[in-house]
Design a protein that fits this description.
The protein is 47% helix and 11% strand. The protein contains twelve helices and eight strands. It has an eight-stranded parallel beta sheet. Helix 8 links the parallel strand 6 and strand 7. Helix 2 packs parallel to helix 4. The structure holds alpha-methylisocitric acid.
Length: 305
């Protein structure tokens, strides 16, 4: 059913639907979907919740993930993913684009755009990928104030506090910050860039009852673990933030090389989504049928026979 008439879209707010998915006993699998098309493909593969990565979004815009894009640019991505898929979406809110009031503006904007959850991190600008070195950490109390601001502004949005402290303050620092952020109103914790299974295990043990997110980004510091392995470690959510974009980018690179080399895309055709497949994913026929039914309904009777 096209979103334009939308009587098959979920009625409950996305935040409530994200919370319900999170309360299920199995780990919540959140594949990155960097645009509406990726969201539809992830949904077709059977996923029922998604992740919008700052790294993937900025890279798709040809930019590095240094906290330089704006709330409205992110809202553009949220809207297309929520509209196309109808799935609850966790959005990367970086550092919240400023201090308390900026964080509150972000929360309202993201929620109104259709987000179900957001994560907010304790880095200072320019923030960077959690798996890089020399990250600058915010003061823990300043971050807690931002978490409190986010919790105050949300209606249903799930608030996840990310801490980048493990690299510089160790597990003790990460756990102390996580506790503070939970006290400030966070619904869950994202301990970023853990480098061993033992670290995942220790964080789990020292934060009993706290919902935890694992980040399975490729080419990072975290060892390659499956969703099942994270579930067995007691984690509640797992993201594969940039995977869809990495695969799409590599395919594009091959296409442009082939075009430059051959002056034709022929060699790449077997690797292409066909026209029929594309139209199937985006539901072209359903939109056309909708248009047709509207056109029919306004034809006056005297013109019909
Ligand atoms: C989760 C993350 O913030 C993202 O933007 O998706 C990144 C992912 C990455 O750069 O691999 C991160 O900082 O881990």
């Amino acid at each position: 059913m096209p979103y334009l008439i939308a009587n098959d879209l979920p009625k409950a707010p996305a935040g409530q639907r994200f919370r319900a998915a999170l309360s299920r006993p199995d780990i919540l699998r959140l594949p990155g979907a960097h645009n509406g098309q990726a969201a539809l493909q992830a949904k077709a593969a059977g996923f029922d919740a998604l992740y919008l990565s700052g790294a993937a979004m900025t890279a798709s815009m040809g930019l590095p993930d240094l906290g330089i894009i704006t709330v409205d640019e992110v809202a553009f991505f949220i809207r297309q993913i929520a509209r196309a898929s109808g799935l609850p979406l966790l959005v990367d809110g970086d550092t919240g684009y400023g201090e308390a009031l900026n964080v509150m503006h972000m929360v309202r904007t993201f929620e109104e755009a259709g987000a179900g959850a957001v994560h907010l991190e304790d880095q200072l600008l320019p923030k960077k990928c959690g798996h890089l070195n020399d990250k600058k950490l915010a003061n823990a109390r300043d971050m807690a104030a931002k978490v409190a601001a986010a919790a105050r502004a949300r209606r249903d949005l799930v608030i996840i506090a990310r801490t980048d402290a493990a690299a510089s303050e160790g597990i003790d620092g990460a756990v102390a910050r996580a506790k503070l952020y939970i006290e400030a109103g966070a619904d869950a914790i994202f301990p970023e860039a853990l480098t061993s299974i033992e670290m995942f295990r220790e964080i789990r043990a020292r934060l009993p009852g706290v919902k935890l997110l694992a980040n399975m980004t490729e080419f990072g510091r975290t060892p390659a673990l499956t969703a099942q392995e994270f579930e067995d470690l007691g984690y509640d959510m797992v993201i594969w933030p940039v995977s869809s974009l990495r695969v799409a980018n590599k395919a594009q690179e091959r296409l442009y090389a082939a075009l430059a080399r051959d002056g034709a895309a022929t060699a790449m055709i077997p690797q292409m989504q066909t026209r029929a497949e594309l139209y199937e994913v985006i539901g072209l026929n359903a939109f056309e049928m909708l248009d047709h039914s509207i056109a029919q309904s306004v034809v006056p009777e005297w013109q019909q026979g």
